[in-house]
């Protein structure tokens, strides 16, 4: 992707998947202007920016708030170099380390609101598939997935910008997992890495989900059903969903190992060891609840409603 400017240096953006990892001088593409390093928790969790990597490198580190807005840049000593404040829809105020106002960034930084790229010339945020106007508080283009995220085709995160995030300009975080997986590969044919990425994002969203009042089965039963249902609908196929439903039983390191494998979903899964609990093993009981979640995915009910429904079998 290229940014053409009336004055100044035109920029080439180099991407690895959805993440911009490098900016180059468009006139001399061999000249690297800056590089970016990302964390593993969030697609836009930029951690470090390296200025002039081919000359005298200068590193700056990003600090985020709980909604992944960049709030400050620090140097290698931890000293703040620049600060950022936001209005609900991303209206940006830049300040120096002492909170003195700045009219523009002094650190060549454009990654700000929710980790997205701010275009200073237009005053818009680039959300990969659409541009967000912080003044209007909405997208400028129609939703590419049409009504997948509601009836308003221009609305940003359900008009809840303080508590929700959007990675690709396609929907709020509980729906963006669907969009992310679909963009990796439509419907079937997702790699194991893609499946576990989806499951990891969903797990982060629903790991603390509590069943509604009056629900008589144990909470873990509800969570297995819910997670399996969400994954089945997210990845557009029932294949592999049951085995991924088990992921909530394993530590993060185990999940990351699966991400590194990158083999096909249909491939074998390494042996799983789980303790025995009652007349059925934990693994069998959880698989049965995962299966109920797959059944829920085939209904017209919401996953939460179906998994809590009295008519849905519970395997305690």
Task: Determine the fraction of residues in helical runs and give it as a percent range.
Answer: 25-40%
Unreliably modeled segments = 174-190, 237-280
Range of strand content: 15-25%
Q: List the total number of helices.
A: 7
Shape: elongated
Strand order of the largest sheet: 1-2-3-4-5-6-7-8-9-10
What value does the average pLDDT take? 77
Main sheet makeup: 10 strands, antiparallel
What is the H/E string? EEEEEEEEEEEEEEHHHHHEEHH
Radius of gyration: 22 Å
SSE-based structural type: alpha+beta
Description:
The protein has three domains: 2-119, no CATH class; 127-184, no CATH class; 186-307, no CATH class. With 316 residues, the protein is of the alpha+beta class. A hairpin with a 5-residue loop joins strand 8 (80-86) and strand 9. It is elongated and about 65 Å long. The protein is 25% helix and 22% strand. The chain has a ten-stranded antiparallel β-sheet, with no helix packed on it. Strands 11-12-13-14 form a four-stranded antiparallel β-sheet, with no helix packed on it. The N and C termini lie far apart (53 Å). The chain has seven helices and 16 strands. Mean pLDDT is 77; it is low at 174-190 and 237-280.
């Amino acid at each position: 992707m290229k940014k053409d400017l009336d004055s100044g240096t035109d920029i080439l953006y180099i991407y690895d998947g959805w993440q911009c990892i490098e900016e180059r001088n468009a006139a001399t593409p061999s000249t690297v202007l800056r590089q970016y390093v990302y964390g593993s928790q969030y697609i836009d969790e930029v951690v470090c920016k390296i200025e002039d990597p081919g000359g005298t490198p200068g590193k700056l580190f990003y600090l985020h708030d709980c909604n992944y807005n960049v709030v400050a840049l620090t140097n290698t000593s931890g000293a703040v170099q620049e600060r950022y404040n936001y209005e609900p829809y991303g209206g940006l105020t830049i300040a120096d380390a002492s909170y003195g106002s700045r009219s523009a960034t002094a650190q060549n930084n454009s990654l700000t609101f929710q980790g997205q790229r701010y275009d200073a010339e237009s005053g818009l945020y680039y959300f990969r598939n659409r541009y967000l106007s912080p003044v209007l508080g909405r997208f400028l283009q129609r939703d590419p997935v049409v009504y997948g995220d509601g009836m308003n085709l221009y609305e940003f995160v359900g008009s809840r910008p303080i508590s929700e995030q959007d990675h690709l300009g396609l929907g709020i975080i509980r729906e963006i997992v669907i969009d992310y997986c679909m963009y990796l590969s439509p419907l079937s044919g997702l790699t194991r890495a893609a499946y576990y990425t989806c499951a990891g994002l969903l797990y982060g969203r629903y790991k603390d989900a509590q069943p509604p009042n009056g629900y008589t089965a144990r909470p873990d039963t509800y969570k297995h059903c819910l997670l399996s249902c969400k994954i089945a609908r997210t990845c557009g196929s029932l294949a592999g969903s049951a085995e991924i439903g088990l992921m909530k039983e394993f530590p993060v390191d185990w999940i990351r190992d699966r991400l590194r494998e990158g083999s096909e979903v249909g491939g074998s899964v390494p042996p799983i060891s789980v303790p025995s609990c009652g007349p059925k093993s934990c693994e069998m009981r959880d698989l049965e609840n995962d299966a109920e979640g797959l059944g829920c995915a085939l209904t017209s009910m919401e996953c939460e409603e179906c998994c809590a429904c009295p008519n849905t079998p519970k395997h305690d």
